[in-house]
Specification:
Layout lengths: L9 H9 L8 H14 L4 H14 L5 H5 L3 H8 L8 H21 L2 H6 L7 E2 L13 H13 L6 H10 L3 E2 L6 H7 L7
Parallel strand pairs: 1-2
Amino acid sequence: MHRCEWATTDSAILYHDLEWGVPLHDDKSLLEFLVLEGAQAGLSWQTILNKRQRYIEVFDGFDPEKIARYGSEKIEALLSDPGIVKNRRKIESAVQNARVFLDIQKQFGSFDRYIWQYVNNQPIQNHHLNISQIPAKNELSEKISLDLRKRGMNFVGPTIIYAFMQAVGMVNDHIVSCFRYSQIQKGSNKEI
């Protein structure tokens, strides 16, 4: 069974095989990936995968209403938690982004509706032959990044947004020889 070459550890293989690139439409899960991709900036995705369960626990299951109410006491508690990335700017950004996330939900009815409009509610099907062809960002991620930053979000640069788009299935960036490429292209969320 051939996989994208970045999936080398057990946790990365599991994430690759079951989640990465599968179209995601649940607002809490979309917020989770926004926060995790922002936390990943400057670090490896493997580091974030290893800390993911703790993020879910300490960020209240990525409930945007709860996160938006975090004050200085909660932020200090998060900064002392060894199970997450202890970076003040990233943690404060998660709180700020949750507040903007709620504003977007009010304006569009859901964050899902807002974010998926950028791809006309259909995943972009790329046809990369190898990992070196996959971009770190593109014009669309730059456009989304710009809009999110205008709305007040942080840690949503074009590279972070492109990684977010890959994670939540807005783009299918599995290489064509990967067994998940055709499954996702056909709209299958089939688990192996």
